[in-house]
Known about the structure:
Structural class: alpha+beta
Number of domains: 1
Shape: globular
Number of strands: 4
Helix content: 10-25%
Strand order of the largest sheet: 1-2-3-4
Distance between the termini: 40 Å
Order of helices and strands: EEEEH
Amino acid sequence: MDEISNGMAASAIEGARWRKSAYSNPSGNCVEVTPLPDGGVAVRNSRHPGGPALIYSQAEMAAFILGAKNGDFDDLAF
């Protein structure tokens, strides 16, 4: 497998099993994630499946998820 790097084409991540939240918008405006072999997570826009993937470490994703659970981003909900 080629090296996985931030901004690479999401379609180039071999073996990716993309998934989205059950709360996702039915019109397809979703964020999708896939686990990476090193424990990190890749994130892509479901409307552009071959577009760039944002790559986060396991620690970065854990911090984000904990923050979301704690309400740190509630002011961003419309």
